[in-house]
Amino acid sequence: MPAAMRGGPSARPTGQGAATAAARGRTAAPGGGLSAPTILLAALGVLLAALILILATGGRGARIVATVGEGVSARLAGAGFRLAAVRIKGASPLATADILRAAELYKDQPLAGLDLDAVRRRIESVGWVHDVRVVRLLPDTLLIQVVERRQLAIWQAGGRRQVIDVRGAPIPEADPARFPALPLVVGAGANVGAADLLLELSRRPAVLSQVDALVRVDQRRWDLKLKSGGVIQLPAEGEAAALRRLDDLDRASGMMRIGFDRLDLRDPTAVAVRPRPGGAAPAAGELATEG
């Protein structure tokens, strides 16, 4: 019988021997221990038994389960179920650093024993976050899916500027200096109701592009301060109707292009305009010129 060549193909088990070897290969991990999938299945079985124990014994069972859970977590961590990566979806680059800081996660943390509800609550405390979902991706990843609060405007009041969301709530972590494109709303209570007025102005980009700030007056109505230095006074009620009148006047007279010192739209039956010093008010049938 020819001798087997060194380094050549070795004999393969057949029949029942092959099946036994295959089964051994599926359950054995490198180094002779159990594989990670086998440990995971065993852990699930232990947790199911623990649940039955809690239902049967009450508080004493819960203490036993806590001890068992720690052991299971350590066993899974030993099998490679440790935190190696955190994936954050839905958050802006500015918000990501604050979210990671609040999550209080660290590399090689046992993933199975991680309290996902506690992580979620910590992330929800971050001002950027409207909603969040935290999911384990075994064997070594944590997924954080975030719905971020939309930044609406910069609110200036009491000598302080803050970024606010669409509900008017401040976002403490947001630095106003990083949001130069956001509109400015000024005054006590200006954060409340700013979303409705900005929505109306967004339908009139020619007007909005000339607005420097939305100023809240006596917490009941708005003035639009223009980049040219002019002011448009809006009524306490019927802001949308007043802006439509402004559209009509601008089409008829080019008022926004010519400019003015003050335009009073508070009276729904008339418009009063104060020309710029040294200038003249544009002609329009319903305008009343202030001296």
TrEMBL record:
Skewed-composition ranges (Low complexity): 11-24
Family annotation (PANTHER family): CELL DIVISION PROTEIN FTSQ
Keywords associated with the record: Cell cycle, Cell division, Cell inner membrane, Cell membrane, Membrane, Transmembrane, Transmembrane helix
Name assigned to this protein: Cell division protein FtsQ
One annotated GO biological process: FtsZ-dependent cytokinesis
Domain of life: Bacteria
Compartments it resides in: Cell inner membrane; Membrane
Membrane association type: Single-pass type II membrane protein
Function: Essential cell division protein.
Family, similarity comment: Belongs to the FtsQ/DivIB family. FtsQ subfamily.
Chain ranges passing through the membrane: 34-56
GO CC annotations, alphabetized: cell division site; plasma membrane
Listed PROSITE patterns: POTRA
Domain spans labelled POTRA: 81-149
InterPro entries: Cell_div_FtsQ/DivIB_C, FtsQ, POTRA, POTRA_FtsQ_type
